[in-house]
């Protein structure tokens, strides 16, 4: 048994992590964040990096302590949560948000820029495109062969090269100067950026796909759970460095693009920048690359969700399940990218705090694994506040409720769940101690 990986052995694992989290769909968020945060860009992008890069790496390290099984971790709350929480995660990174987003992002990047304004406003154009897109996704997902893997291996480096060229050109020849931040980034820009990082959904994906990285480390001969977690963090630092450079650079590009006007989402902003810097040919090449990158991501997610739901519903065939997933994703994608992001954020604001609490508790499991009340108290505390926060984001919370919530520390910053989760955990700890004391008397 090996005690640890050498740096040479760690590099391929780090690159694997980079490839997992470097999704084409995630590239649209940093530019819009930079555009909106203006002179507060460095504070807001720091928050974004923490939630979009730091949390996923911690998530993989956390589930490595549970053999890579998020169900085992979630079962610490209640056995039913071992099914419910993975189900919610797969729905979020699957047909509810992530899969439809691949269709809308590829449309915005590869099709919409080449249509007239009149054609872009015709609902049936997106309908026809997404029908073809998800039909192809379905047929490729029936047998996700090595062809898709091989395409992905070439597309990730190609996309990385193209983004690097755009970044170098945009930084060396900025299209404008950084202006004042928008209203939402005037106060607490770090926490605003932190919450925007939820949109990548990478921390959720890490909880279910982290087993891939863990198995890669095990194949190198490292079997001790603590050493696997340590190797994951070291490899993660390699991935984090690359992702941070890309996200920060894209945010800077967005911050210097305010002279272009108002943008409703990051894909429109990014295509405008590329067209300004490289013309139609550059825009065409980026669009084609993004299209295939989104397609391979879509196939991978559909296949993963198909396998998961097959285990939950063994009487339904894999082919029927992925057909349902593709049909549902097709319907959701026709809401459009901006509406999809608007709808997903309130739900992610509810889900993410629970995931963060579980990730943190995983590192203390050796001390609290027999104290179920700690898990229950912490998660319920986070869930209670995050539901209210989600309702507020969706503009569904009553004025009286919001007035009351002003008394909760950090609520206005979107982090009110932190103290309540901690309080719930402490109450759970006291209950566990009292229960244990009663059982021994």
SSE blueprint and pairings:
Layout: H1 7-21, H2 29-37, H3 41-64, H4 70-74, H5 81-96, H6 98-110, H7 117-120, H8 123-142, H9 146-172, H10 189-196, H11 202-219, H12 225-255, H13 266-312, H14 318-333, H15 337-362, H16 365-368, H17 372-393, H18 399-405, H19 417-440
GO molecular function: L-isoleucine transmembrane transporter activity; L-leucine transmembrane transporter activity; L-valine transmembrane transporter activity
Family: Belongs to the branched chain amino acid transporter family.
Organism: Bacillus wiedmannii
What's a concise summary of this model?
The protein has 19 helices and no strands. The protein has 441 residues and is mainly alpha-helical.
Proportion of helical residues: over 70%
CATH class annotation of the largest domain: Mainly Alpha
Supply the number of helical segments: 19
CATH superfamily of the largest domain: Amino acid/polyamine transporter I
What's the architecture of the largest domain, going by CATH? Up-down Bundle
Indicate the CATH topology of the largest domain.
Answer: Amino acid/polyamine transporter I
End-to-end CA span: 44 Å
Quaternary assembly: single chain
Major pleated sheet? none
Shape: globular
GO molecular function, one term: L-leucine transmembrane transporter activity
Main location: membrane
Transmembrane segments: 12-29, 41-68, 80-99, 123-142, 154-173, 193-215, 227-253, 285-309, 321-341, 347-364, 373-394, 414-432
Organism: Bacillus wiedmannii
Descriptive notes:
By secondary structure, the chain is an all-alpha fold. It folds into 2 domains: 328 residues, Amino acid/polyamine transporter I, CATH 1.20.1740.10; 96 residues, no CATH class. It is built from 19 helices and no strands. The longest helix is centred in the middle third of the chain and has 47 residues. Component of the transport system for branched-chain amino acids. One of its GO terms (molecular function) is L-valine transmembrane transporter activity. It comes from Bacillus wiedmannii. Belongs to the branched chain amino acid transporter family.
